[in-house]
Amino acid sequence: MVRLLALLAAEDRAFTRREILTHVWSTPYVPDDRSCDVHVANLRRKLERDPAHPVRLLTVRGVGYRLAR
Questions:
Q1: Distances from the Cα of 63 to the Cαs of 24, 46, 50, 52, in angstroms?
Q2: Would you tell me how many other CB atoms lie within 10 Å of the CB of residue 58?
Q3: Sheet of 15-16: strands edge to edge?
Q4: How much is the average pLDDT of 61-68?
Q5: How far, in Å, CA of 67 to CA of 69, rounded?
Q6: What was the pLDDT predicted at 1?
Q7: What is the three-state SS of the chain?
Q8: What is the pLDDT of residues 11-64, one digit of tens each?
Q9: How far is Cα 4 from Cα 53, in angstroms, rounded to an integer?
Q10: Considering only CA atoms, which of 25, 2, 18 is closest in space to residue 10?
Q11: Number of C-alpha atoms within 13 angstroms, CB side, residue 54?
Q12: Those residues with Cβ within 8 angstroms of residue 21's Cβ, 6 or more apart along the chain or in another chain
């Protein structure tokens, strides 16, 4: 989760699921894109006061995820 948070904090932009998984796994094999959602949900549980209504780790519809500045 540290690597995921570091990636999202590095730039003020939305990252695709594929970009996130490639960075987190650091291997040519990347699991299913939806496994990214599980990692984001786990991180939201740790960062957000109300994970069901996130204000820090946001979903960008049609793109992926970004960390609010």
A1: 17, 23, 23, 19
A2: 16
A3: 15-16, 64-67, 57-60
A4: 95
A5: 6
A6: 80
A7: CHHHHHHHHHCCCCEEHHHHHHHHHCCCCCCCCCHHHHHHHHHHHHHCCCCCCCCCEEEECCCEEEECC
A8: 999 999 989 988 888 777 777 878 889 999 999 999 999 999 999 999 999 999
A9: 20
A10: 2
A11: 18
A12: 30, 31, 33, 35, 36
- Using N-to-C axis directions, what is the helix angle for 35-47 and 17-25, rounded to 10°? 80
- pTM, two decimals, is 0.85
Q: Residue 52's pLDDT is what? A: 95
Map tokens 């960075």 to a residue. 23
The tokens describing 16, both together, are: 């695709």
Q: Would strands 15-16 and 64-67 be described as parallel, antiparallel, or unpaired? A: antiparallel
